[in-house]
Amino acid sequence: xxxxxxxxxxxxxxxxxxxxxxxxxxxxxxxxxxxxxxxxxxxxxxxxxxxxxxxxxxxxxxxxxxxxxxxxxxxxxxxxxxxxxxxxxxxxxxxxxxxxxxxxxxxxxxxxxxxxxxxxxxxxxxxxxxxxxxxxxxxxxxxxxxxxxxxxxxxxxxxxxxxxxxxxxxxxxxxxxxxxxxxxxxxxxxxxxxxxxxxxxxxxxxxxxxxxxxxxxxxxxxxxxxxxxxxxxxxxxxxxxxxxxxxxxxxxxxxxxxxxxxxxxxxxxxxxxxxxxxxxxxxxxxxxxxxxxxxxxxxxxxxxxxxxxxxxxxxxxxxxxxxxxxxxxxxxxxxxxxxxxxxxxxxxxxxxxxxxxxxxxxxxxxxxxxxxxxxxxxxxxxxxxxxxxxxxxxxxxxxxxxxxxxxxxxxxxxxxxxxxxxxxxxxxxxxxxxxxxxxxxxxxxxxxxxxxxxxxxxxxxxxxxxxxxxxxxxxxxxxxxxxxxxxxxxxxxxxxxxxxxxxxxxxxxxxxxxxxxxxxxxxxxxxxxxxxxxxxxxxxxxxxxxxxxxxxxxxxxxxxxxxxxxxxxxxxxxxxxxxxxxxxxxxxxxxxxxxxxxxxxxxxxxxxxxxxxxxxxxxxxxxxxxxxxxxxxxxxxxxxxxxxxxxxxxxxxxxxxxxxxxxxxxxxxxxxxxxxxxxxxxxxxxxxxxxxxxxxxxxxxx
Length: 702
What we know:
Layout: E1 3-13, E2 16-25, E3 28-33, E4 40-43, E5 47-54, E6 59-65, E7 70-74, H1 80-91, E8 96-98, E9 110-114, E10 117-122, E11 125-131, E12 135-141, E13 144-149, E14 161-165, H2 178-190, E15 201-210, E16 212-219, E17 223-227, E18 232-236, E19 240-247, E20 253-266, E21 269-279, E22 286-287, H3 292-297, E23 305-306, H4 310-322, E24 326-327, E25 341-345, E26 348-354, E27 358-362, E28 367-370, E29 374-381, E30 390-397, E31 403-409, H5 412-422, H6 430-438, H7 447-465, H8 473-509, H9 521-528, H10 531-547, H11 563-575, H12 582-595, H13 598-624, H14 629-659, H15 667-680, H16 685-701
Parallel strand pairs: 5-8, 19-24
Antiparallel strand pairs: 1-2, 1-7, 2-3, 3-4, 5-6, 6-7, 9-10, 10-11, 12-13, 13-14, 15-16, 15-21, 16-17, 17-18, 19-20, 20-21, 22-23, 25-26, 26-27, 27-28, 29-30, 30-31
């Protein structure tokens, strides 16, 4: 059996049981977390003792290391003990010892520092064990030692403080102070050295983007101290779990990123990443305060005097102290020729770096997304005015919350698609992206641009047929004047043609040519009018049309709301999240309303019924008081005026024109036709008498 693998195993990480996979081979033991948490690698030659004891109410394996550290793994089955025993005996010559915890609930015993762990036991039976690296502070107060612990943001329950009471023994009270000795032993492995000690190196006036400002950084073997103008920070080396070194897009600076867990805090603000910004061309010589033994342990990575670019020197120091690999950009090169993509996240500009095993975004907020946590990706054009120039990149996580990067240049679309395809990451719109990738990477087709080009080519073809001549100003003015005179003459031609036709009808045949079906009398009357009068008339009619628009009565009762709108108004703030648009909130509300049961909707349906009854009662009262009657009558009266006015004027003008050139014998007929509209309008007898009197006066004058 050359290798063993146990999935679903967890490791203790600052109070959190981080799930992952444990692998054992002939040379080493390794644990890899599922969500980017704690990772452990121990060589087989460095293992110093194996114990089988419970962790989290399940069988576990306690692995001791020669340097005093302890790693505890849990989540095994009882049947796994036999497999592990055979493997460790054959590969590492290490037997597994059975160790049962003392769980009677006693609160007294012996507190000792063994290796790098605080062990509380009773008669050599362990009760609990805490790594010294979990301790953030130790205070000695007479007979009591107070321990404060680091917090893990991913843990739901955290150990904040623990107090040990150590009574003074009368026989040894003058010789040893137990509390002080206990404090010194814990501090020796907790990474809490006093700053009075000499640091390995001092970095002055270092620009940091997160937290923002310039800091003097003191690097100690187990911690980092940042001193700024306003705030100071202290970071244990053990809280650094990843190192990144990436260039800026402008090529003039380099980012050195430290991933922190737990993060450093300033009030309510948490910083999970420490980002240092180094000029690429800056060089500085550093003297390292390290012993010959420490330099030998670095395997040649560190020297007494470090020379060269500052960012290379600092990255080498942290790589050796933290014992971590530095992640640098891989083979991905964007459209700009650098591994960085300019984009925004929640309206904050930054740079996205597609790395070999994840995405790194700098900054605000800085984040690292592992490929193992990604379920799919989506490439789409941006919403907004510049839809053809930018692309949105959406990363769907297995946890369900998507992360969207906006305003990427459209030229990065094909680069990202090829990168995701090589990494075997699922793309939600592969057909759509492939069609884009097949096109030229320099420029995507623009329909409007293609149309303009086609029109320009067509104009060029038309201009090629014509001969080029010198421009003559006088000739051009004569041509424009001729066109203007012809347009004015054509505007008055319809009146002359119409009058000549009427004269021909009255003089001889008495029959007129039949009107075409397409030309109605209204169109003929418009055509017969001069252009200036027609334009004035159209403007006047347009103004009247705007005045006749029906206006909403402000006294009218408010309409009733449906059950959905009643519920949505009351729960909108609960549904809305940071960064959601109006459409996103409406979409979430509709989906949640659809998933609700009939019993949950019953309350809102009752409110809707009450609102409906309220509206009906108010509407009834509104109509009873005469509401809505005046607004409904206005359009009918105005429309009747409009219909009666133009039609009567058109009839009069037509008959006047058709009868104007008749003989004197037909004049009585003309008078009867003139009197006809008045009879139709329903005037009184007196008005008819007035019209007869006017006719009689005309006869006398004739």
